[in-house]
Amino acid sequence: MSGVEQGGWETVIGLEIHTQLATKSKIFSGSPTAYGAEPNTQADLVDLGYPGVLPVLNAEAVRMAVKFGLAIGAVITRRSVFARKNYFYPDLPKGYQISQYELPIVGKGVLDVMLEDGTVKSIGVTRAHLEEDAGKSQHEGVGVSAIDLNRAGTPLIEIVSEPDMRSAKEAVAYMKKIHTLVRYLGICDGNMQEGSFRCDANVSVRRKGAEKFGTRAELKNLNSFRFVERAINIEVARQIDILEGGGTVVQETRLYDADKDETRSMRSKEEANDYRYFPDPDLLPVVVGEDFIDAVRATLPELPDAKAQRFQSQYGLSAYDAGFLIASGEMADYYEAVAALVPSDAKLVANWVMGELSAALNKDGLDITQSRLSAAQFGALLNRIVDDTVSGKLAKEVFEAMWAEGLEADVVIESRGLKQITDPAAIGAVIDEIIAANPKQLADYRSGKDKLFGFFVGQTMKATGGKANPVLLNDLLKQKLAP
Amino acid sequence: MSLTPKQIERIAHLARLELAAEEIPAYSDSLSRIFGLVDELDRAQTAGIEPMAHPLEDQVQRLRADAITSPNARDLYQQNAPQVDGGLYLVPKVIE
Amino acid sequence: MADQTLASLAAGLKARKYSSVELTKAFLGRIEHAQPALNALVTVTAESALAAAAAADVRIAAGTAGPLTGVPIIHKDIFCTSGVRTTCASKMLSNFISPYDATLVGKYKDAGTVMLGKANMDEFAMGSSNETSFFGAVKNPWDLAKVPGGSSGGSAAAVAARLAPLATATDTGGSIRQPAALCGVTGLKPTYGRVSRYGMIAFASSLDQAGVITVSAEDAALTLQAMAGFDPRDSTSVDVPVPDYAAELQQPMRGLRIGILTEFFGEGLDPAVEQAVRDSLAVWQKLGATIQEVSLPNLPLSVPTYYVVAPAECSSNLARFDGVRFGHRCEDPKDLLDLYKRSRAEGFGSEVKRRIMTGTYVLSAGYYDAYYLKAQRVRALINQDFRRAFGEVDLLVGPTTPTVAFGLGDKTSDPITMYLNDIYTIGANLAGLPAMSIPCGFAAGLPVGVQLIGPHFAEGRMLAAAHAYQRETDWHLRAPSGWAADFEPSTTGGAA
After folding, report:
1. Comparing A216-230, C54-68, C289-303, which segment has the lowest mean pLDDT?
2. Of C128, C133, C155, C175, which is the active-site residue?
3. What is the predicted pLDDT for the residue at C488?
């Protein structure tokens, strides 16, 4: 077991990931789901829970849920049932949330997650059920809360894991894997700032070796990978403190406050909930047949794990590199487009995509689809390395100029005179001059001070402005320095 | 079966109904009578019987095409609202 | 005889015996006259009615009229009507203006009917006597000291007093059939899913069914034609073809197998009511139908089953009335909990609260299996009983109610005696079956109804049996005196 031990304690984590489905309209109404509209302009009679209105299920939401289930090899429930989860809250217009309870559309599945040390751990997915999102409450006003129901009725799948994770890092790795997967599937935009992808964590600790789970706290409001990790670690420390002080952990819902970097009990959820689930009589059982499932299966893209395998075998990449490149489908597509242009050195392409390109994207806060360099432009640059036109080192200068000014590689190389010197005679002449100017170092080298080879390389590079082909330079220098 | 005043209070709270103390005995009495009637269900042999949630058992849920069909009608819908400001519904402050 | 049925009024309009505006004015006059005594309506929409009537007259003149164009109608105030107050007879919605039309209301509008107003009812359709209305009880037009039944008491009283030839109604446990019986009119509850529930304020979603109260079965067939059909807005509406109900009325009675329910003729049935019902069987027999006894052993459990299922669904359906987006809000709530609790406590009457609490309890942790699931299982048993019965017979016949109309206030103190009024009607709701009540005589001067129950989607057969009976009898044409006489729309003299 890859459990992380803290003074004899073991952490146990299960996640509930709320994934907004990227449908055009809501799960039970014809209102748009677009983010950021004026308050309550995307809430129709159904979303507002007006008297007399009824829900009708969006086919696309069902397809997307099934797609997710197939992607994790889960059981697809042939006859799933919507239930009402009853509770009063101002952002819940009907006084109940339509969700799935006893018969969720996606049953048990499993997800393999690569941990930091390179080992792979299987995390169980208990279920994934379809449900409607609630609206939003704003608490900024004096004495009032203000309710916007634009989000109410947005389709969600809630992906519930088994309590299989043993550290905050494992939890984050699992969550990132789901994040990658849902974007691959095109069922969620993955935008965590906008709340499209959110997570609650059930966290408990127990004595290492204990069979029984400890009492858990449910952490809410974890809207970034960093917060998930922070909140879990803080909560684990809090629980261990309590237990080591002889206290007991209370089962409760706790809110993570990123500003104060603490978790605190949620007053609004304090009272014991009794959700009074029962089958929603306004909706009938959702039956998905083999035809439906086969049609959805036919739309599955190459999945992240398969792509990572292929990248390793097809491009000769390490598992780490492949994992990095496939983390987003767009990144993987970009890589493949460049690799196709630079067929002789896929590893070089990987290094550059993961190195210079990613750094530049990060610096400018862009994602790969917003790259300032097209795959063709980037490939042209890398081909100038492959064909020895420019050294790897100078290519970085070329890249920076291309990025900053939007120029083509050849234009930058030409205008800045960065073209590599590949003429042996020209390099030889420079070496001759260096040797002539440094007789003492020559003598020392020849008497056994091998380290001075580097000195001659440096001097020659300096004299050629870094443009000498390094392999050629090496060969010539060895010949000429030989006694 | 009879319901105690304490149970009545708990149910009323779950259902978000304010009950004055003097109303509780009457509800306790009438609900107890209702459950006396309901307890007749114990007579039925229901082992192995599937619960029936819906009168038309062979019907299944129909799916709607994913299309936007509801234009914004906020102003009309908010005409019935007790308190709105800037298009938002207002309630007494919620403490989280 | 005066034109009192919808069929004859429609024929009169078509023959230009009177215009829709004349008809509408006459019926509005009757309403004005009867309203103080009967309290059958919550809202009268005279102005828009006259405008709709004028528009109908244009259609009639242009030859583009349908069979119901220009016919006055009253909608139960449970149906949302765009721009018109829709209250469900509750303080909660006493100021609620619906921004949309129920599908059924839209269909009747499209058919060219003229809405005269909204019918009074039991609050949120919870009641069997129309005494739970926030707007006061409706009185039975046969005897003002008696209840009209409920929950569609306003609809039944209005049609009985001939304030309109038809009124829409809803039936969750007998709310169309029981008041129809107690007021001496024809009440039709179609198969669950046959008529859209969209825009009908929900009480118990798996039981609620829209229907109609009319003078005759023929009228019921005509109106069912207008309101039946699949609605994409209602997931529980069923996409099966709508037959030509007028044509179905002609189905022969010869060889029709009628089952009489043993369980309906036991203890608690008023002997005079039983006699009237048994007399009606002789009429069908004379027409060639065969009569046999049928037993549905689990049927006596329908009342306890219903009082788990219906409150459970109602407790959830009525959670949306929270004082936030519409409906009653209490004064100066001190916090959110106070807003919820007082708004709901003030907005709902005691019967509604009782049912919400009952439902909350049966769904709550620790009781769900013992009550809710148990009731769902008994519901399945009752459904199986009906299925078995319809393997042997084509229709079931029995009394609609155990007694004739009871006195106002007689049963308000004990919910159980009130609930037992629906003992014969609830079964059809649990199984989603079509059922109707038609007048079959009198006991102690008050109307008696006979109930017909058919298999799913057999409205045609059931209507045909009712129609055949009404061709042999005139119970359905007996109207209480005093309400319509002074305001005959035609020159043919007084009714009843």
Report:
1. A216-230
2. C175
3. 52
User: CA-CA distance, C249 to C460, in Å (whole number)?
Assistant: 6
Give me chain C's average pLDDT, please. Answer: 95
SS (HEC) of C143-163: ECCECCCCCCHHHHHHHHCCC
Spell out which residues of chain B touch residue A139, defining contact as CB-CB under 8 Å.
Answer: 93-96
AA identity, residue C161: A
| Predicted confidence (pLDDT) at residue A317 exceeds the cutoff of 70 | yes
Each residue's pLDDT tens digit, C409-457:
999 888 888 888 899 999 999 999 999 999 999 999 999 999 999 999 9
Note the pLDDT of residue A270: 54
Q: What is the pLDDT of residue C493?
A: 36
The size of the A-C interface in CB pairs under 8 A is 99
pLDDT at A268: 58
Assess whether the previous peptide bond of C98 is cis (omega < 30° from 0): no
Name every chain C residue with its beta carbon within 8 A of the beta carbon of B69: none
Percent of chain A clearing pLDDT 70 (strictly above): 98
The first and second tokens of residue C282, run together, are 């002789």
- Residues C339, B91: C-beta atoms closer than 8 Å: yes
CA C448 centroid distance within chain: 16
> Looking at chain A from residue 269 to 308, which residues have their Cβ under 8 Å from any Cβ of chain C?
274, 276-278, 281-284
CATH number at residue B34: 1.10.20.60
Closest-CA distance, B62 to chain C, in angstroms, reads 6
Return the amino acid letter for C478. Answer: R
- Between CA C432 and CA C365 the distance in angstroms is 28
Residue C19 known to be catalytic = no
Which residues, at least 6 apart from C336, have a Cβ–Cβ distance to it below 8 Å? A90, A145, B91, B92, B93, B94
d(C-alpha C423, C-alpha C437), whole Å: 14
Q: Residue A25 and residue B67: Cβ atoms within 8 Å?
A: yes
Q: Where are the domains of chain A?
A: 5-296, 304-392, 424-481
A122 and A111 Cβ atoms separated by less than 8 Å: yes
Say which residue the tokens 């392999």 belong to: A471
How many domains is chain B built from?
1
User: For the structural domain made of C6-299+379-487, what CATH number should be given?
Assistant: 3.90.1300.10
Domain boundaries, chain C: 6-299+379-487, 304-370
Residue pair A161/A126 in contact (Cβ under 8 Å)? The answer is: yes
- Confirm whether B75 is domain-assigned: no
pLDDT at residue number A481: 86
Say what the pLDDT of residue C491 is.
42
The pLDDT value given to residue A272: 65
Where b means 16+ CB within 10 Å and e means fewer, C210-234 reads bbbbbbbbbbbbbbbbbbbbebebb
Secondary structure (H, E, C), C364-376: CCCCHHHHHHHHH
Instruction: Give the A window 120-179 contacts with C, CB below 8 Å.
Output: 145, 147
**Single-letter code of the amino acid located at C474:** D
pLDDT at A223: 87
Q: Which domain holds residue B17?
A: 1-43
Architecture of domain A424-481: Orthogonal Bundle (1.10)
Question: Quick check: A82 and A99 in contact, CB under 8 A?
Answer: yes
Distances (CA, A) of A428 to A431, A436, A468, C403: 5, 12, 10, 121
**Cβ-based contacts of A41 with chain B (< 8 Å):** 72, 74, 87
Rounded CA gap, A37 and B88, in Å?
12
